[in-house]
Design goal:
mainly alpha, flat
Length: 262
């Protein structure tokens, strides 16, 4: 026990997995107890949040709205990932580098000003929502993915060439296949951006519903316990998504952890 505790306060230490899980559970329990017995006045109590959560599930279709938002988010992520990968890989050709550079800089644009133009191009509210989400996610994904590609070292490329591989084959083996684990990590990190934006677009286009619309209604009528309950649900879903991405990365790219600091 003493050695496990010591590892928790030692820089770069690798405590046993069981110790880390126990630590997470203890800290989560401590936060819940503090929320239960010493609530902050600006936040609703734990009991009122749990009651609001039950009300949202039983009478306001929280699960259905969450599922609607989840399917929209996954569709946007899939489309944005394909577009971002295409733009990023094209930067291997100098002709296309300005296009990827421009796409990465578009992340500074505000979505509020873009929704009008996308509404003119789309035929339904659902298409507008997807267009906004795909655009917002793509520009961030391109930024991260191009950074991964630029991290390819000259030694890696020279090693591939020394094996008799041509330029295209070297690019395929070193950059495309060799960086898939890093690309998946970029996708995992930027999935949160879609959840940040989805509440905005579901508020603007309310015909399709979604958890963003439900959150807007709770906030509009100052149901702070309901607002916090929805935020906790979104946080839990996000944490579950991160875990799924990590599990997929460990299964398909077990070698990726070998380069991490120990």
């Amino acid at each position: 026990i003493q050695s496990a505790m010591h590892s928790l306060f030692t820089p770069n230490a690798q405590p046993p997995r069981a110790t880390l899980l126990l630590l997470i559970a203890a800290q989560a329990l401590l936060l819940l107890l503090l929320w239960l017995f010493y609530p902050i006045q600006i936040f609703p109590s734990l009991g009122s949040v749990l009651l609001a959560l039950r009300e949202l599930i039983t009478n306001q279709n929280l699960i259905q709205e969450l599922w609607a938002s989840m399917t929209t988010a996954l569709q946007a992520l899939a489309a944005a990932t394909v577009l971002a990968l295409l733009l990023s890989y094209l930067t291997a050709l100098p002709f296309f580098r300005p296009l990827a550079y421009l796409a990465s800089k578009m992340r500074y644009l505000t979505l509020t000003g873009l929704t009008f133009f996308m509404a003119l191009l789309a035929s339904s509210g659902q298409q507008v929502k997807l267009s906004v989400l795909v655009f917002g996610a793509t520009v961030y994904l391109v930024t991260g993915m191009t950074s991964v590609m630029l991290g390819t070292t000259q030694e890696e490329m020279d090693h591939a060439r020394s094996l008799g591989l041509g330029e295209w084959r070297s690019f395929w083996e070193v950059v495309v296949r060799g960086k898939l684990a890093a690309m998946l990590e970029v996708v995992r990190q930027n999935f949160a951006i879609i959840w940040t934006m989805i509440t905005l677009v579901e508020t603007l286009y309310q015909g399709e519903g979604g958890i963003g619309l439900l959150l807007y209604k709770q906030n509009r009528y100052l149901h702070l316990d309901g607002v916090l309950a929805i935020q906790v649900v979104i946080l839990a879903v996000g944490a579950a998504q991160d875990w799924v991405f990590e599990a997929v990365r460990r299964v398909f790219f077990p070698y990726a952890a070998l380069s991490a600091a120990q």
